[in-house]
Amino acid sequence: MRLRKKVMAVLLSAAMIATTVCIPKKNVQTVSASSFNNLNQTEITKAMGAGWNLGNQLEASSNGTPNETAYGNPKINEELILAVKDAGFKSIRIPVSYLSMIDDNNGYKIDSSWLDRVKQVVDMCVDNGLYAIVNMHGDGYTTVSGGWLLCGNGEQTKIKAKYKACWEQIADTFKNYDEHLIFESMNEEFDGTYGNPSYNAYANINAYNQIFVDTVRKSGGNNDKRWLLIPGWNTNINYTADNYGFEMPSDKYLSSSIPSGQKRIMVSVHYYDPWDFCGTESSTCTQWGEKATNSSKVASWGDESYMASQLKKMNTKFVENGYPVVVGEFGAIDKSAFDSQNAACRADYYEKFCYYSDMYGIIPVAWDNGYNGNYGFGLFDRYSYKVTQQSVINAIMEIYGDSSSATATGIKLDQTSMIINIGDEKKQLNATLTPADSKDKITWKSSDEEVATVNSKGQVTAVNAGTCKITASVPLGYSASCEVTVPKANYVRAKLYLLETANWQSVASDEYVDIYSKGGTFSLSLDATQSQLSNIGSLYIRDINVGDEDASAFNKATIKVSSIEVNGTAYSMKNDTFLYDTSKKASDDGLTCPIFNFSFINVWANTHVNNVTVENGNYKAYFNNVSYQTLNNVKINFTVSDIDGNSATAAPTIAPTVAPTVAPTVAPTVTPTAAPTVAPTVAPTIAPTIAPTVAPTVAPTVAPTVTPTVAPTVAPTVAPSDSDDITGSVKLESDWGSGGIVTISLKNNTSKIFTSGWTVEFTLSREITSMWSGNCESLGNNRYRVSNPAWSGYWGASDTITLNGAIGSGSGTPVITDIKLVK
Length: 823
Fold this sequence. Notes:
Blueprint: H1 7-14, H2 41-48, E1 51-53, E2 61-62, E3 65-66, H3 78-86, E4 91-94, E5 102-103, E6 109-110, H4 112-126, E7 131-135, H5 156-173, E8 181-184, H6 199-217, E9 228-231, H7 237-241, E10 265-271, H8 275-278, H9 304-317, E11 325-330, H10 342-359, E12 362-366, H11 390-400, E13 410-413, E14 417-419, E15 427-428, E16 431-434, E17 443-446, E18 452-454, E19 459-462, E20 466-473, E21 479-486, E22 492-500, E23 505-508, E24 511-515, E25 520-528, H12 530-533, E26 536-543, E27 556-566, E28 569-571, E29 577-581, E30 586-587, E31 597-602, E32 612-615, E33 620-623, E34 632-641, E35 657-658, E36 713-714, E37 726-735, E38 740-748, E39 759-764, E40 768-771, E41 775-780, E42 783-787, E43 800-807, E44 816-821
Parallel strand pairs: 1-4, 1-12, 4-7, 7-8, 8-9, 9-10, 10-11, 11-12, 14-21
Antiparallel strand pairs: 2-3, 5-6, 13-16, 15-19, 17-20, 18-19, 20-21, 22-23, 22-24, 22-26, 24-35, 25-34, 26-31, 27-28, 27-29, 27-34, 29-30, 32-33, 36-37, 37-38, 38-43, 39-42, 39-44, 40-43, 41-42
Helix pairs in contact: 5-6, 9-10, 10-11
């Protein structure tokens, strides 16, 4: 986090002289190398509890020189540390910048007085029984004067030598400290460009992490068994957990005293989502969660379910594999000056974040920049050491506070079994405690979140067909369970969606229709703003009863669209009939999934509606001659027949059903003002005054569709030069000389099943200008690296995947060669 820009900080820093900090050493007890308590993953996670950031202090700088008062905070005092401990926090993260304190002309020696000051602050924490996380913070910022740990810089040999030298000195200084000290390799490290990570820059981040682990481990003392903390790209959850290039460093110098199979590396990420609520300095978005009273003040994404899914993602990728996760920064700025409800919403945000962190075995560390008041992250007054946001701290300690006062000696649920259908409203489970007046916090958990999820209030949501168990528990260990069954649907539940590309958000119909085996005539409608309606990426209907990898209830069906209406004006169809056939795992409109799923407007492929203008280069389509209103109604009228070969007379027209408030919608994404080169995974536009987090990267629910405008031709399969692991072919869907549309098919000839991502490289004889069914990076000379799209990382053994994209000028079907499996 780089939040340093308050009026106080500006005034104080202008009056300060950037000098080496010289502070008398404090007499402290130094632990010996033999006093190390070797905590395993479960033990360290529990011991560290909830943490707090000593932000805008030792990472503060003025003109490239570290100065702990440069951002407007007083010098750190042990009374502050004790106040943090008294509030219930068990860990303190200490961000540290080194910058000009490193002498480039003297073997990269760190100024001894600065390292002494870092040691003094660490001692204030460790001597008082707190866990301390020490990192290298601002040195990797492209926006800070003197930043040098730059993964996008060309002088990597020098950078890596300097980085290694610094960690040799830091590790040596603290080598005899016990398990209460954790080293963190870097902070928010990336090349300064938002969007998909650069392959080469990410490789440098991975190299830094490897240097860090090796250097610390070989430094002696307790460092060969100390817990070490490493980040991925910009400490972003998606770019760390998904297939964007993060690599876990090897730990070959780990002490032999560590039991076989146990890890001693943690993974660091940050969480400030939705940024509109958490970090944007405006009065527009001031509310969040169930405490919100005004929906116009709530961000369109980043709700409680999204928060839970992001933390679950870290649990699945790392925690379940033995690597603890530390969310080294999370929080939301104070906007109560604009909205009295903001305080309650902030407290709810912190409590929910800690609730799901505790559920998924994650260590949360709240960000505090020392600034209290409008737009401040402060939880304490650093001059008086008083708590300034008691409601926020109470919310954190509701989950991580002392449970010695727990009173519940029993818990009972009002249901022991439940049936809930996909698409139904959330079903409430109610718990009764013994004694009845107990106020203990109840924790809810699903045994299989692929079947059903449960939130912090005991509300159950169906996900996929199957059975699972929902368990409610209290601090003293008492629990009760309910068996939940989600039946497989025997009908399609369809909704209408519009993906707009101005802000990369999806709009869904409030209503849905249930389509049974006899079919019928239906209509669906949604409301869209003028901006949304004039920037259409795709307009489609989709079965919400199933996930991306699950087939709809039907095997075959025919859908015929009579018209699409906008504000009552009907638009006719170019192609009004569409076929659905799961045996081909596609419809005749090019969809490569088994879902009942049809796109009628699509800027990446074909648009089937007359009188619609498509601007492919601008990623938008729009209806012509629309009389725009504040909210515009888009309606589709269609008939479904021949379901599974049943050609019986269609059932009577079925009126649309209003969808439950929790009906699945497509999570929004945010895009930069520049059009992305690989649609549609994009990054946000974020105010430069604070360290941003990237908004969730979600591909449109409907994969771009293609109908050939020329007879398809298939290029011969070309075996890779050194391996038959992957073979491929190319189909030219359309070609207009200056460009064209292709489908690239790749077959996995190995016995390996990829469940969480894959990456391949290949050469194509014509340039790929964009790709919408995978993340594509040009390596030069028509060589490309492609990884799975964000919405699907599965690739089974002997399965064939298809990549749809646009190609540049040339003649004939491109030839694919030298296909290699990277991951």
